[in-house]
Amino acid sequence: MTNYLENIYRLKIVQKSDIVSLVGNENAAKELLRRFKKQGLLAQIKRDMYVANDLATKTAIASKFEIGSQINSTAFLSHHAALEYHGLANQVFYEMQISSKQKFKQFDFEGITYLFHLSKTDVGVVAPPYDSFVRVTNLERTVVDCINRIDLCGGLEELIVSFALLTIINEQKILDYLDAFDKQALYQKAGFILSYFQDTMKLSDSFFAYCQTKIGKSTRYLTDSQESNVYFKEWRLVAPKNILSYLEQGGGEYV
Questions:
Q1: pLDDT tens for each residue of 125-144
Q2: Looking at the chain, which residues constitute the CATH 1.10.10 domain(s)?
Q3: Where does residue 3 rank: exposed (0-12), middle (13-18), buried (19+ CB within 10 A)?
Q4: Scanning 83, 108, 160, 178, which has its CA 20 to 30 A from the CA of 50?
């Protein structure tokens, strides 16, 4: 019994199948799970997924970032969850955006809602060497994801305040991920938004020249028509007059 518990605490988060493999059959696994849950050693995250509890506090020993990353074998933190993991989020949300090739139903655990988003690619997804239970988009993929789905990163204000914290970024990786998405609207939005951060992110003129070759002839809105009401001819984009004004509204400072 002690050996089983040691293995579970080493793994932090286990699926029912892990317990079946550990004890040898499903009935024994069910009994072990029932006993450990009754003793407060395990908590059920969702169906067939469990986390070891801290013996003193009876709360999960795994962080919300670890839980989100271990929902299934293809799951990873994305959008606002990735911003928060990288220390860029202006606000802490009680939702975790989880991308995955395998669908799962959203669920709540310890006050956090875990939301599914389909991802067709895991390009730019990394497992930090200092945090082996986590899978998360790197900074460049996070930037592209957030521009692609501004709503999933907390809105335009949250995006701008978060991006203002980035001082350098790999522009070739940004271009690689834009090419992987291959969406004209995304080149428009990325070129427009990142032009405000060209100096702080140290982006070259050629980066924006490349984006302009990909924008096509369609005019698009950055956000909804109420928020976006000024036409920017260079990017064929309708957007707010000055997106950096969100830094003042968000209490941040753009340097």
A1: 999 988 999 999 999 999 99
A2: 2-52
A3: exposed
A4: 83
